[in-house]
Specification:
The protein is α+β, with helices and mostly antiparallel strands. It has 2 domains: about 80 residues, RNA Polymerase Alpha Subunit, Chain A, domain 2 (Beta Complex); about 90 residues, YbbR-like domain (RNA Polymerase Alpha Subunit, Chain A, domain 2, Beta Complex), CATH 2.170.120.40. The chain has 4 helices and 18 strands.
Length: about 220
């Protein structure tokens, strides 16, 4: 009996005592840490989007995730610690409703997802289209009496746009930022950006547009254009 006690109890007794103390301390720390709950608004991330597919919905919803866990963990939460993820591999053009559950949420393992809002969301998809459209300068001004705009030249004259097929097809031209040509009597060049009003259509490789305006005298008796 003494040998058993010496061999199994007293052997490395200091290390065993220290381990016990650490275990008790850890248990006390965990049991004393109150449970907290917090709601976090996070983006919905889409994974593996097919190369030729575009999201055709202007407002992709965000998700409100309610999580519960140790207060010390909840207080240290960072925006990137929680996010919702949707798999889009093999997705086709059209409309699709997705379920949003705790299984789509990534969060620190110490926390539990208790609620996801909304539980569903709706997104439309379309094939991607790229095409060139003309640049249309937007010019205004108060001109000297007897003068009018003779011609307007844009360089480049066209730009390339891309986005959901139907939206890109509907674009007639890219518009420049406003150009005030007041007081111009001969020739003037302005540098502006061209843009597309549809937020889902992108200007690819955007570069400033040089707009040259040439004035001309109004022929007598015509009253101008």
């Amino acid at each position: 009996m003494k040998d058993f006690f010496r061999r199994h109890v007293l052997h490395n007794f200091g290390i065993k005592l220290l381990s016990l103390a650490l275990a008790v301390g850890l248990w006390l720390a965990v049991t004393r840490d109150p449970v907290a709950e917090v709601a976090v608004e996070v983006p919905i991330e889409f994974r593996n989007i097919p190369e030729n597919l575009e999201i055709n919905t202007e407002s992709v919803p965000r998700a409100e995730i309610r999580v519960r866990g140790p207060q010390r963990i909840v207080r240290r939460l960072q925006p990137a610690d929680i996010y919702a993820e949707i798999e889009l591999g093999g997705m086709k053009p059209g409309e699709r409703t997705f379920d949003l559950t705790a299984q789509q949420v990534h969060q620190p393992r110490e926390l539990e997802v208790v609620q996801v809002i909304p539980s569903q969301f709706h997104v439309a998809f379309d094939t991607r289209l790229t095409r060139q459209v003309p640049v249309r300068p937007r010019v205004f001004g108060n001109f000297t009496a007897g003068y009018q705009i003779g011609y307007i030249d844009a360089e480049p004259a066209t730009i390339t746009i891309g986005g959901p097929h139907k939206r890109v097809e509907a674009v007639e031209a890219a518009i420049t930022d406003p150009i005030d040509a007041s007081g111009t009597m001969d020739r003037a060049t302005f540098v502006r950006q061209a843009y597309i009003s549809d937020p889902l259509v992108q200007v690819l490789n955007p570069n400033p547009v040089r707009v040259t305006i040439m004035m001309e005298k109004i022929p007598p008796g015509t009253g101008g254009r």
